[in-house]
């Protein structure tokens, strides 16, 4: 088993604590903020692995945009009850345990099998932005365009939904 | 065009900025403790008692009639009449105030005490830097602190002082004439 | 050489430390100047701003404390340290405490990727510009935390407006930087500065002297003013509008920390503007290259700060809807046209053609969009719904 560096250990512990806090804290906004910390932790994990673009993009998109989006949504829909406790079921959550164990098993299998393959081959070259760009534009240009279309459709849909409400109130 | 107004505004502001260094009259600030604006003649802040001559006890015009004490709206004046009498400027024997206190923190500078005083004994001073560090008695001014010579009154309110002087001279002349009727009817 | 005096100083000091802790000492010696210089610059900027605004408004600025008021920041610091730290009883104490700290941490980080002089950069990342924007995006979260934790409706309103404004103006900011990144071919700030280091005749190769660069720079600076909540985009913190917006409930030192964070953000984003458009630490004229590179950087930074102060003294505050309309309906299309124009510039051969094509694209877009903005400004005839 490879040695885990101190940096990885600290980052992993912080991320896991933040993720658990995001599930168990009272107050929905606290949970959202803990989620933002978890996102930031994952971003720094990417950075520690040498994937500069991915790590910084994770920070920019997840923490800077998606966490803010989640917080705004909470505020605009449930702003009044700031101390509401999210519903925690009484008794043992059987379904939850089953689902969590399945996912854990799947992930562990994937990690260990890929581990077995990649520890034999040469280390992959670090993916610089230039290479990412070339690959996106040359090999994966169709998925890129499809994603662009999807995002445009989402944007137009949001605008149409908002506009329709304005016409209704007039 | 869209940005033109902003550019014109920026030029105007720059002109103001540079102009304030070149042309000192643009800056209308009066740097307070060093420079002061001139005080108007009728400016008033806090009352004071006038005395004629050089002795504040003997020359004090106030006869302790207590009209100002009764008329003062926030009732900041405290007067106690004396037991004996002393002569005033026409020679008549009058009481004088043994205690005359005005509370600076209560006085609202309304000038009613000045308006009702029949003896021109209390007038308004225009000094406003009256703060003190003594919390307990510093703002209760007694007769000694309130007394100021007539020259001070002439210095701060010359026109009024001239008018008051003229009136008092006339009264004194009438009183003198009454005292010696033999010389008039001669 | 004066240019490399700080680098040589650092190496000399490193030579005196034992080999075991040399990496740590190296990091410390790199960070310490940033932590010392920029807060001092912040102090100077507060005095400069107050005196500058005063002169613009035909009055003296503060002139009591030191020689011409230069020690005023000391007085301000003393005041904010000794003021009572009032936290509302129903406020969320943890988040309320953390918000200014996170803002400060996030405000100091971007300075690591700004090249202050030749060989004077704290962290030469390959994706430097992306790092800058990622960290800038995190600061929005701290603004929101400050607003929400105070349990005050006005504070929350101010925070939501501030975050909406910051998110809207991030898009033109990023798009104008993308034009520069395209032209330079790299995300690394050192690379971008190096690409602008040449001279052709008397003119430097700065991107601001190209048509798309000029428009891009103007857009960048407008977006930067909006990102850092400065006038005329300071509705979230306007004192006559919403009484300090998201930092209403902060007093004493935490307020000073917010102030510090805001000004540091201003410096960082001006620094990025200098790096991307104004040639970083490069000299403007070929016979002035003997002046040390870090002096040029700070001179340009001072110039941009004076620009900020000038604009603050001139323009009235924008209303929220005017602000958002401006961002989405004018600046975003303009920024896209800047990107297209930069592409045209890059791929056309050198000469009059590429100047003409670039300028034409930008002028046509500006004309159409300006007409759109002005048509929205027309006040419609007043109609009454119920009082007919």
Describe this structure in words.
The complex is a heterotrimer of chains A (170), B (186) and C (388). In chain A, 77% of the residues lie in helices and 0% in strands. Chain A has 170 residues and is mainly alpha-helical. Chain A folds into 2 domains: 1-85, NADH-ubiquinone/plastoquinone oxidoreductase chain 6, subunit NuoJ (Four Helix Bundle (Hemerythrin (Met), subunit A), Up-down Bundle), CATH 1.20.120.1200; 128-170. The longest helix of chain A is centred in the C-terminal third of the chain and has 29 residues, at 141-169. Chain A is globular. Chain B contains 8 helices and 8 strands. In chain B, a hairpin with a 5-residue loop joins strand 3 (86-87) and strand 4. The longest helix of chain B has 22 residues, at 158-179. Chain B is elongated, with a radius of gyration of 25 Å. The termini of chain B are far apart. The mean pLDDT of chain B is 88. Chain C has 388 residues and is mostly helical. Chain C has one domain (89-374). Chain C contains 12 helices and 2 strands. Chain C has helices spanning 5-15, 22-56, 72-82, 93-108, 128-149, 153-184, 189-195, 211-227, 253-276, 293-314, 320-347, 352-377, and strands spanning 199-200, 203-204. In chain C, strand 1 and strand 2 (203-204) form a beta hairpin.
Please identify the structural class of chain A as seen in this structure.
Answer: mainly alpha
Hey, which two chains have the biggest interface? Answer: A-C, 25 and 25 residues
Subunit arrangement of the protein: heterotrimer
Record field, number of beta strands of chain C: 2
Q: Sheet with the most strands of chain A?
A: none
**Global mean pLDDT of chain A:** 82
Helix content of chain A: over 70%
Class of the largest domain in chain A, according to the CATH hierarchy?
Mainly Alpha
**CATH homologous superfamily annotation of the largest domain in chain A:** NADH-ubiquinone/plastoquinone oxidoreductase chain 6, subunit NuoJ
Shape of chain C: globular
Spatial strand order of the main sheet of chain C: 1-2
In percent, how much strand structure appears in the residues of chain C?
Answer: under 5%
Spans of chain C with pLDDT under 50 lasting ≥5 residues?
Answer: none
Radius of gyration of chain C: 23 Å
Helix content of chain C: 55-70%
Number of helices of chain A: 6
Number of helices of chain C: 12
Residues in β-strands, percent of chain A = under 5%
N-end to C-end Cα span of chain A: 66 Å
**CATH fold name of the largest domain in chain A, please?**
Four Helix Bundle (Hemerythrin (Met), subunit A)
Q: Give the total of domains of chain A.
A: 2
